[in-house]
Each structure stands twice: as structure tokens, then as C-alpha cells.
Amino acid sequence: MALAPPLSRELTAIRTALGRGLFGLVAGPDGPANRARIHGAPGERWFAEDRPIRQVHGDASMFVGGLRALLFQSLHPLAMAGVAEHSDYRGDPWGRLQRTSTFLAITTYGPALEAARAVDKVRGIHNRVRGVAPDGRAYAASDPHLLEWVHIAEVDSFLLAYQRYGSGHLDQQGRDDYVADTAVVAEALGVPAPPRTERELRERISAYRPELRGTAAARDAARFLLLTPPLPVLARAPYALVSATAVSMLPAWARLPLRLPYLPLTEATGIRLAGGTLVGGIRWAMTAGPDE
Q: Measured between alpha carbons, how far is 223 from 290 in angstroms, rounded to an integer?
């Protein structure tokens, strides 16, 4: 019994260190200041505290959902061309992750005025991203059709990750409400008529399938994201599990173009169990109390 308090303090220290490390990875050096500003600033929000978008975007399942979204989005050749030619995802992958997570945090939890400013900033960046894909087609990041693909691939990934590995579970109404919540942000970004129910989301993804295929750039990005991201040695094994979990959430038809494995029996048992354990561990580390 005398050993219990020291062990408890050691465990608390480990939890705090892990939580800070994970938060720093996704939020960057300005993460604590941004979090205080986003959550503490007065003013109306786009979404009330009981909205599903807050529930989903605040869950540890976003770690695997985000990686799945990047892989899924890369299947559109024009969207991938824009990333390959205008994004420094190889030189600064964590910077891109941190900017994306900050945008999600601001639009989900921040004051309405700040959320609108964040959207305006992203739209300004999109207006400058244009070019010609390797297949000769012109692309523009501000194209509503490409914006919708990026949006629905992201929403599908976040929702699936939450339903499979989240701390709760959304019923049909909750899933529809989540899709409707995300449509508010999508419309602000320039998507004219984003899906507002889970059924509409599935229908839109099906409608895009004839346009999707694996390109050299998409396969190269998948190899980088899954196998060779810049990580310290101790983080490589957990990240490999994040990668396996993200890949296991892709439909079989989306894996072949990226040359990713499809192992249904292994994924339904070992990977799913390990993924749940991993996400639970991330959640445990990220929810340390303020005094910890």
C-alpha cells in the first residue's frame, strides 16, 4: 500500500507527458494559446454545445479518421494534383496537420466571427491554388466540385472513425445531424449544396466514384504518409498501428488504386481490436485533468 502513491504519481506524469506530446503534434507550438483563445473567447458560436460536430471533432478517433481522410481524398486526380504541386506535405507534414486541426477547432468551437475569418483565409489560399494536372486537365482548389469531394471524403472519414472507435455512438438522427453540421462549414468554404444527411453523403460519394483513380502522386503520398513520415523512433510502432487502422477503414474499392492491402479477416479481428486499444490510449492521454 505504501507504494501506491509514488506509482500513481509516475502514471500521472506519463499521462501528462503523452497528452502534451500528442497535443503538440496536432496543434503545434501555439496550440495551448490557440485552445485558450478558441474556447475562452466570448461570443456566439456556429454550433451549440450539444451539436454532434462538437462530439465527433473533439474525440480521439479523429487521429485515425484524419489519416483515412487524406488517403481517401487523394483518389481524385485533380485534388491530388493540387496537393502535390502546391502543398509542402513532405517538407512540413506536421505543419499541414496543425493548420488543418486549428481550422477545424476554430470552426467547430470558436466564436462565429473568428470562424468566418478562418474560412475567408482558407478561401483566399484556394483562390491561388491552380494549375494543370499530369493528365492535362486544369484544376483550381476553389472549384466547387473539387471542394465537395474533399469535404465529403473528410466527413465520411471522421464519422466512420467516430462510429467505430469513438467514446460514444451516434444514432441515425445524430449521424444526420453531424452531416448537416459539417454542411454549414462546407457552404461557407464554397460548396454550393453539400449533403445534409448520411444517406445523401453516401450517394455523393457513389456519384464521384467514376472520377476516382490511383495516380503516381496519390500512391507516392500514401507511401509517405503510411510508411515514412518524419517521426522519432519510439513513435514509429504506434504510428504503424494508426496507419493500419486508417487503411482498414477504407472500402476495398478505394485500396486497389493506392495499392493498399485488403485483409478482411485480420482487419475485423486483430486490427480492429488493436485500433480500439490505441484510440482508447490516445483518449486517456489527451483527457488528463488540468492539475495533472
A: 38
Rounded Cα distance between 98 and 30, Å, is 10
78-87 residue pLDDT tens: 999 999 998 8
The dihedral formed by the CA atoms of 80, 81, 82 and 88, expressed in degrees to the nearest 10 = 80
Instruction: Tell me the H-state helices in the chain.
Output: 4-27, 31-40, 52-57, 62-73, 77-86, 93-109, 112-128, 144-165, 172-189, 198-208, 216-227, 233-248, 252-255, 264-266, 272-286
Residue 131, phi then psi, degrees to nearest 5: 175, -160
pLDDT digits (tens, 9 = 90+) for 83-142: 999 887 776 666 777 888 899 999 999 999 999 999 999 999 999 999 999 999 999 999
For residue 111, which of 162, 187, 38, 173 has the smallest C-alpha distance? 38
**Cα dihedral 142/153/151/140 (nearest 10):** 0
Three-class SS of residue 214?
Answer: coil
Q: Bin 8: left if φ > 0, else alpha if -120 < ψ < 50, else beta.
A: alpha
Helices 233-248 + 62-73 axis angle, to 10: 70
Name the residue among 91, 110, 111 with its Cα closest to residue 101.
110
Instruction: For residues 207 and 83, give the distance between their C-alpha atoms in angstroms, rounded to a whole number.
Output: 22
Are 180 and 172 a contacting pair, CB within 8 Å? Answer: no
Q: What pLDDT is attached to residue 28?
A: 60
Q: Is 73 exposed, middle or buried (0-12, 13-18, 19+ CB in 10 A)?
A: buried
258-270 pLDDT tens trace: 999 877 766 666 8
Q: Report phi then psi at 138, rounded to 5.
A: -75, 150
CA 147 to CA 153: how far, in whole Å? 10
